[in-house]
Amino acid sequence: MEAFTTLDAVAIPIDQPNLDTDQIIPARFLGKPREMQVGALFHDLRYAPDKSPRPDFVTNMPAFAGARIVVAERNFACGSSRENAVTVMVDNGLRAFIAPSFGDIFFNNCFQNGALPIRVDAARAAELRAMLHASPGARIRIDLASQTVVGPDGKSDRFEIDSFRKDCLLRGADEVSLTLSYDEDIKAFEARQRQEMSWL
Amino acid sequence: MAAARTMFEKIWQRHVVVDRDDGYTLLYIDRHLMHDGSAAGFAKLRERNMKLRRPDRGFATPDHYVRSDSRDVADIVDPHHRRLVEQIRTNTAESGVTLFDLGDERQGIAHVVGPEQGVTQPGLTLVCGDSHTSTHGALGALAFGIGSSEVAHVMATQCLWQRKPKAMRISVDGTLGAGITGKDVILAIIARIGTAGAVGHVIEYAGSAIRGLSIEGRLTVCNMSIEAGGKAGMVAPDDTTIAYLEGRPFAPKAAEWDKAVAFWRTVPSDEGAAFDREVSLDAATIAPMVTWGTSPEDALSITGRIPEPSTAPDAAKKDSMKRALDYMGLVPGTPLEQVPVDRVFIGSCTNSRIEDLRAAAKVAKGRKVVIPSWVVAGSGLVKKQAEAEGLDRIFVEAGFEWREPGCSMCVGMNGDTGKPQQRIASTSNRNFIGRQGPGVRTHLLSPAMAVAAAVSGHFADVRKLA
Predict the structure, then answer these.
(1) Cα A54 from Cα B269, distance rounded (Å)
(2) Residue A31 forms contact with B (CB below 8 Å)
(3) Per the CB < 8 Å rule, is B80 touching A78?
(4) Could you name the CATH architecture of A6-173?
(5) Could you tell me the residue range of the domain that residue B217 belongs to?
(6) H or E segment at A70?
(7) Do B183 and B107 share a domain, yes or no?
(8) Same domain for B356 and B301
(9) How many independent structural domains does chain B possess?
(10) pLDDT of B316
(11) Does pTM top 0.95 for this prediction?
């Protein structure tokens, strides 16, 4: 997994609250190889039914080219557990998501793919989106080690992240390897459970 | 004396393998349900050259990509999707995971099959690579959905790293009116707390109206915990739960049964246990519910009217209401009962169990549908039971299509989708934009209400048809 340390990049604003993972990647693009899904990102938001790009959707605006950060509304990426919602964004260069709140499963899935979800308060998220709309192509700077996100206005906010998640992201560490280092504990648990819950 | 604990707390504590100082817990997973989409997890395991740690704890059934008009894998048109349904066979055969395959009457939607087979039990931890895993909490299990990387993690280690969520109790007290079902209860709850209302929380549904629900009704309620933003949803195991489990194929037997039941009796929350949040609803105020917008929180009583964006509390909400109404092709102020419907879908892990089909058949009996309408049973065993009771004949005589088990039109991954601008009355769980196909307008409701719409051609109050 690619480590996440700092990111200084163009950010896109997404204003809809409760933007669900069906909007990030519609179900009909699932069940295909990952490389075939890259073009499915925000598909039905980006394209009209006749397949023409909607000029008013942020990812279709040239000023936002090369964006690597999303600033979203509350409950971003709620809904289905599809991890493709993370991977399709990562494969399109988007690696950090800033929102007042997230769908729980998406939030966990980010850490499995070297992506960073950042919770900020709703007022600051709205402020950041307004700045991005006002100056398309404006950049946001994220430093995971110091847990700070600096907006286009130069204002720096500290964000919270579990030290466990932070450590794994900074090192690009894989959770399975970490878990296997606790193998003795897992075996002890299983031995105990065989006694206590023998019907399983 | 030990402090009073919630049911969630008890199950959590019982499954801690490692508690780290940084607040992370390695949690043991008792049951892992797999479906055709779990092929990604097997592939990740293979990349690492690892084997399943506990194949005896895994149960698999194809559901997302199977056709609802054929049981032959060869009929699946998309080669990638066909391969996923083939891979569940090879992956389970190689690893030793129990499979309920196409052609086996036990096949069905994973969240219907787990409880039906007695795989889901009180006091257990259960995961599946699907957000509606919250369903299984209806039997008093801690059950939640995970992504494919975590699926691979469970396959490799039988554990997951978790930060402990908070506990929330939603109490529904009083008596539900005639014709009011678990679906109406959960839609009323989501309308009340919002689709992000339970983010970061495990919900315990409590109160006399919840206790009065059958297991099927509780499964429907817990199923949509995810639509309320919850990590999981659960109901305390009681006599109803124990009676439901007795004799099921994977439920404990003989002396082990007694031992298990004694444990299950200890699972419910202790008197006086503290919850981080409490919400309560009066059962008597819940009417048959229908969603009008593109989020499950956009739910209304059937007696209501399409809302006016001008009544929204703020500009952002007003804007999102306008967008939803535009997508849904609805005019504010229109009575819900006057909104015409183009198509009906009865099925999904929310509402495809025998009780759902009985409730639907009761309304369908002696009536005729006036729009294309489907019934997709949740499992082969549900289908068989319905046929033994003659429900299939009632549906077919009323003009419904009686189809083969799977997720079908809830998510449309198998190609069962509507056409753009089609308005579908659906017993599923998500009315998201494009969920049932690009441009399709989904309205969520109960099975009985879906039949009321099917025979009326517009939304209708099932209480008037009784």
Answers:
(1) 52
(2) yes
(3) no
(4) Alpha-Beta Barrel (3.20)
(5) 7-278
(6) strand A69-71
(7) yes
(8) yes
(9) 2
(10) 84
(11) yes
Q: What is the CATH number of the domain that holds B457?
A: 3.30.499.10
Secondary structure element (H or E) that encloses residue A108, with its range? helix A104-111
A22–B22: do the CB atoms touch at under 8 Å? no
Closest residue of A to B48, CA-based?
A176
Residue at a domain's end among B248, B278, B308: B278
Q: pLDDT of B314-357, one tens digit each?
A: 888 899 999 999 999 999 999 999 999 999 999 999 999 999 99
Choose the closest CB to B17 out of A28, A81, A189.
A189
With an 8 Å Cβ cutoff, are B439 and A186 in contact?
no
Distance from CA of A163 to the nearest CA of B (A): 6
Structure tokens at B373: 């309408």
Q: How many other C-beta atoms lie within 10 A of the C-beta of residue B256? A: 14
Q: For chain A, how far is it from start to end, CA to CA, in angstroms?
A: 35
CB contact B295 to A (< 8 Å): yes
ipTM: 0.95
Residue numbers in A near B152 (CB within 8 A): 176
